[in-house]
Amino acid sequence: MSLKPFFKFVNEVGIDEAGRGGIAGPVFAAAVLLPKGFRHKDLNDSKLLSEKKRSILRAVIEKEALDYAVSFASREEIDTINILNASILAMHRAIEMLKSPPPHLIVDGNRFLPYGQISYDCIVKGDSKYLSIAAASILAKTYRDEYMYSLHEELPHYYWDKNRGYPTKQHRQAIEEHGVSKHHRISFKLLAD
Q1: What secondary structure does DSSP assign to 50-74, as a single string?
Q2: What the protein does (predicted)?
Q3: pLDDT in tens, 98-143
Q4: Is 86 part of a structural domain of the chain?
Q5: Which residues are annotated as a binding site?
Q6: What is the mean pLDDT of residues 69-91?
Q7: Is 99 within a domain?
Q8: Measuring CA to CA, how many Å separate 59 from each of 23, 42, 55, 98, 124?
Q9: What's the number of domains the chain is made of?
Q10: What residues form the annotated binding site for a divalent metal cation?
Q11: Longest CA–CA separation in the chain, Å
Q12: Is pTM beyond 0.70 here?
């Protein structure tokens, strides 16, 4: 099934996040406005693409998009306001960074809070249905991965270059061995039972 533009409105902006399921690091969000008629054979939900394809597509999106922005909510914010609210905060920050307010938003998932007077639709699995949400998923994912690589340079024993902060067995063993870092989400369950 090929992805399509939404076209409920002209110039709708796709929104998605990356990193909600991690136990370390921030949550990132992206907002993308693609030109009418934009197509790319490989554009899809970032989770379905290899790292190499995501990297190639990020360059295409950044070159071809009429507008895009990427932002994040910190680990501290996640622990203070919870991951859902932090994800929405990151989305709002990305929208705020756009050159001009879009007429309509299409948001991946089933939860969102209004941003000003901008109308929106929440779309479950939207990143595998609509081009602009897929593009946002790729930007959010690649920017977050880059950030986690930089944290890996600081603390290599957590293997964030491989797990990107997600709760893998190796990551949890590293927490048991080295303790919790300042980048871990203390409101999350860090260790398995």
Answers
A1: -HHHHHHHHHHHHHH-SEEEEEEE-
A2: Endonuclease that specifically degrades the RNA of RNA-DNA hybrids.
A3: 999 999 999 999 999 999 999 999 999 998 889 999 999 999 999 9
A4: yes
A5: 16-17, 108
A6: 98
A7: yes
A8: 28, 13, 7, 18, 26
A9: 1
A10: 16-17, 108
A11: 53
A12: yes
